[in-house]
Hints:
Chain A is α/β, with parallel strands linked by helices. Chain A is built from six helices and 13 strands.
Amino acid sequence: MKILVTAKRVTDPNAKIKLKSDKSGIQTDGLEYKPNPFCENAIEEALRLNETHGGEVVVVSIGPSDVQATIRTALAMGAHRGILVTGLDDHQMDSDLVARVFAELYKRERPDLFLLGKQAIDGDSNQVGQLLAEYLEIGQACFASKVEIHGSEAIVTREVDGGLEKIAVGMPAVITADLRLNEPRYASLPGIVKARKKSIDEIDIRSLGIDTHLKVETVAYEEPKTRGGGVTFVGGVDELVGKLKSEAKAI
Amino acid sequence: MGGILVVAEVRDGKLFSGTLSAVQFAQQVGQQTGAAFDIFVAGSNIGSIAEELSYYGAKKVLVEDNPVFAHYLAPGFAASVAAAAKQLGSSYVAGTATTFGKDLLPRVAVRLGAGMASEVTEIVGTRNGRLVFKRPMWAGNIVGHVVVNTDVVVVSVRGTDFDKAVKLANRSEVVPFTGGGANTRVQQRFISFEQTASERPDLTEAAVVVAGGRGLKDGPNFFKIMEPLADSLNAAIGASRAAVDAGFCPNDLQVGQTGKVVAPQLYVAVAISGAIQHLAGMKNSKTIVAINKDKEAPIFQIADYGLVGDAFKVVPELADAIKRARS
Ligand SMILES: Cc1cc2nc3c(=O)[nH]c(=O)nc-3n(C[C@H](O)[C@H](O)[C@H](O)COP(=O)(O)OP(=O)(O)OC[C@H]3O[C@@H](n4cnc5c(N)ncnc54)[C@H](O)[C@@H]3O)c2cc1C
Ligand SMILES: Nc1ncnc2c1ncn2[C@@H]1O[C@H](COP(=O)(O)O)[C@@H](O)[C@H]1O
């Protein structure tokens, strides 16, 4: 079984993101970059499926050349090779362009499964997997918390509003990972050493013949309104109930 | 310019009320552009839902009633929604930013050659004749203003930021529709649904939400502490990701960046530290109470009222005190 899996580079998920003083974008000085947490789950799942079913795990990403490091992390976890599409900075991509680039890689690689994260924690769009599946006219199982392969189908448990849904999708299919899908492994030392020799193919976006005009553009940024007032510490339960009743009128 | 097509969400055989926030969004787009809106609904045996939807001022309610649509599956639904939008010549397609809308709407966008703005919270105005929308990014730490540059614009609407549309006296025309989605060739089928059983109000709709975190130790303790408190306030129960990951409670109680977004009148966070991803889902609540044994917990930075103490001791006391105060 051949699997394509994404490794997006994002800002540290636990950093408090602030705007530049001219509000043209986020402050990046001193910010660390990390793999998108949802991609880590997708990579882990790809590796587990590979351990059971054999085949190849190819890590794909789009971004500047230094995103090689993000792919290299996935290779150190055990993926076999990488493809990096370069020539686009984060602000030059929307989910639709990313999906069209992945559709092109799909056509070149013909995987059985395309695994992605359910969302990128910077843009929080939650679109690429679904867009990709429709461009390819294949099935999708998004927000996956469990994946099993039975013959030519993937049986996927999805985390949806109201509970857990189980569906079957014929392969090839797109699956997007939710955080409870698995616990991503750390790269081992031998893994890191081996990863140095694994290949990462760099492809310039211009060679793909894809229209890079954005369908969705972020034209301005602002910081959200902060809550006024600040916290009032109460001495006990009765004082709290009193304040909720008379001051906040919340009960 | 064409109108707006609202995609209704059917959940558990009923109209999901968040749909009415998408209708409100459509009405606001209408105020800006002068366009009218229609509603599309697909499902099996949904005559009464179509009837219900006909009282919100839509020009038409398109109904695709087919046993094949008894369970939602993205490829077929997307094909039918897109066919409806094409037939009506819609310039906008709007739906709920729930797991249903998030799963479905991007596929609709591809079929319409449209761009999609996710989780829109506000219409800011126009720029070169196009609407500008606000949407949260980076777990709500940043608000982006986005413009969609395509002829058709797809939007998922964040329910907590748009009031529900109000029921009217006049009835819209209800039209049966066949969009072809029932015959999709994409191989995908429904197997089962394990529903989270709850007698409580829906998390995203409740006026009061009480949420528990990892500090509650385990599943039995989580419910032992949270249920009486929820009962005393007729509240929905929510949870942090850590509580869900540790198996204390079902996944669909998770509040946050990757869970549900809530904005109740009152939110009580119990033994939750206040990570940015959690705040992303609840910081627009009107009044926030935090109960935590650690005075330095970041949750206190956004709380209105803070109670420093052991949840196992103070929460049962609080439930009793609220019951007394309300009786
Ligand atoms: C990509 C990504 C997405 C995420 N999405 C979400 C999300 O949607 N929602 C979410 O909630 N999290 C999310 N998280 C996780 C988030 O970062 C935190 O790990 C999580 O919110 C912590 O949960 P917690 O506050 O229950 O646990 P902890 O951080 O462990 O806090 C437990 C708190 O309980 C207090 N406590 C302990 N015992 C008691 C007691 N007896 N009485 C009173 N207080 C007590 C402690 O002082 C502490 O403050 C996400 C993380 C990532 C990386
Ligand atoms: N530039 C990128 N490189 C690699 N993967 C990406 C990129 N952008 C998005 N993705 C993948 O698409 C998923 C959804 O992204 P989004 O729709 O932007 O929230 C992410 O979790 C990643 O798996």
